[in-house]
Specification:
This protein is mainly α. It has 6 helices and 2 strands, in the order ααββαααα. The chain has a two-stranded antiparallel sheet with strand order 1-2. A hairpin with a 5-residue loop joins strand 1 and strand 2.
């Protein structure tokens, strides 16, 4: 409850305090059982984004966004469906 209140009222000071107390990787737990893991160093973020997509399931983590972006949104997919949609979207960005 305290972490949720601190996040709602002043998220940046909360993250700064957690970084100082727990290091460059820390987890916040919110009311309702939601957990967020924060990565401070760019090399850690890079490791997550280049990790095995069959292990690091971003679609499952972003399930809450499916209500707003659609259940077939790139953010809500994992595995082969995610790869297929991503391949379709890449050419316009080059």
């Amino acid at each position: 409850l305290l972490q949720t209140l601190a996040w709602v009222r002043r998220p940046v000071p909360l993250m700064t305090r957690c970084r100082a107390a727990y290091g460059p990787i820390f987890t916040l737990r919110f009311v309702g059982g939601r957990r967020l893991v924060f990565l401070v160093r760019p090399e850690h973020v890079r490791e997550v984004f280049t990790g095995d997509p069959d292990v690091l399931l971003g679609g499952r983590a972003n399930a809450a966004f499916a209500r707003f972006m659609g259940e077939h949104s790139l953010f809500a997919l994992d595995g082969e469906a995610h790869r297929r949609h991503r391949r379709l979207l890449l050419p316009p960005f080059h």
